[in-house]
Design brief:
This protein is α/β, with parallel strands linked by helices and 367 residues long. It is built from 7 helices and 5 strands; from the N terminus they run ααβββααβααβα. A 5-stranded mixed beta sheet has the order 1-2-3-4-5. One of its GO terms (biological process) is DNA recombination.
């Protein structure tokens, strides 16, 4: 029994050893298989890693070339943009400099003009003061009016004694400022300059009282009436001058005062055949007179031209008669020439016939 148990134990131990050995072999085989699989897997991983690395390197190389190209294009584009920006900036700077320089130059010119205008204003101020001094004296006012009147006449007619005469002496021994030689039926019109300024100034002076201004207004009207009467009595001479005369007032303000607020003075001047004018209205009157003078001259020339045309018409009539006679003579001569030409042709043909006849006779003698 014990032997059997011992044998059984030995068998169990052997079986256990076998099982352990078998298990160990299986583990070794399994380890080899795992190692083989690991080696295969490592090989595959290496190959895949190599492929990935090669692909990555190719992509990196392609990307590097692409980036280099992009960088080159970007550099070119940036250079071009910078060049354009530089040109635009330079152009704007140049333009800005030119504008600034032009503005500065214009400012200098304006300052120069302002300085010149300031000098002119100072000169004008002195002239105004001088003019006030001139207008303050009655005699100098008269000279001022005469000078202005002469300037107006020279501006319209020039220096033409055939149309106007300055300081003309009349048959009554008096001298008018201007004697205007207008076309008929107007005839010679006397123009005299009057400058009633003192009472006008007092009349419009707001610093004076109403009573003082009213008194000045009455004196102003009396001055104007006296001037109208003097001109009508001195410078309207029947048989020598026109039946009307002109009173020239050098100041537009005085003229406007008369026509705006003193209609009685206007009516009085019309009744006396004295026309009151200012520089503006006299210029219009002289311009109208200039047109009349030119029309008169054209009419005079038209009569002369008509006379010359009549003489020329007679010459043309005489020319027509002589031309007709010449045509007839030419026609007769032409007919005679034609007849002579026909006779010459006949004579020529006869000579040719005679010449041909002699030629034939000579040939017959030869034969």
């Amino acid at each position: 029994m014990e032997i059997a148990i011992f044998m059984l134990a030995i068998v169990n131990v052997i079986g256990l050893v076998y099982l352990v050995s078998l298990q160990k072999n299986e583990q070794l085989a399994s380890q080899k298989l795992v190692k083989a699989q690991m080696a295969e897997l490592e090989k595959r991983n290496s190959e895949q890693m190599m492929q990935i690395w090669q692909g990555t390197m190719e992509r990196l190389d392609h990307l590097s070339h692409s980036l280099n190209d992009d960088f080159d294009r970007l550099a070119d584009l940036t250079e071009k943009r910078l060049f354009l920006i530089n040109e635009k900036v330079s152009a704007r700077l140049d333009s800005g400099f030119e504008k600034t320089s032009g503005a500065y130059q214009e400012m200098l010119e304006r300052m120069a003009r302002i300085d010149e205008a300031q000098k002119k204003l100072e000169g004008l101020q002195n002239e105004v003061v001088s003019l006030q001094n001139i207008l303050g004296d009655k005699k100098t006012r008269g000279i001022f009016g005469e000078v202005q009147l002469n300037h107006l006449l020279e501006n319209v007619f020039g220096k033409n004694d055939g149309i106007y005469q300055v300081q003309a002496k009349l048959p009554n021994g008096l001298v008018c400022d201007v004697l205007l030689k207008a076309p008929e039926p107007l005839g010679k019109i006397a123009i005299d300059s009057k400058f009633p300024l003192e009472n006008y100034r007092r009349m419009v002076d707001r610093t004076l009282s109403d009573a003082q201004r009213q008194t000045a207004s009455k004196q102003f009207k009396e001055d104007i009436k006296k001037h109208i009467q003097d001109i009508a009595g001195k410078y309207i001479l029947p048989g020598y001058t026109s039946d009307q005369a002109i009173m020239f007032i050098p100041a537009e303000a005085v003229y406007a005062e008369i026509y705006a607020y003193h209609q009685d003075l206007v009516d009085f001047s019309l009744a006396k055949h004295v026309w009151i004018v200012s520089p503006t209205t006299l210029m219009a009157t002289l311009t109208t007179l200039e047109v009349l003078v030119k029309d008169q001259q054209r009419s005079k020339y038209a009569v002369q031209i008509q006379d010359e045309l009549q003489l020329l018409a007679k010459e043309f009539e005489r020319y027509q008669q002589r031309w007709t006679k010449l045509v007839r003579n030419v026609e007769g001569i032409s007919k005679d020439v034609k007849d002579v030409s026909i006779t010459a042709d006949k004579i020529t043909r006869r000579f040719e016939e005679i010449s041909n006849a002699k030629h034939y006779e000579a040939e017959e003698e030869v034969f």
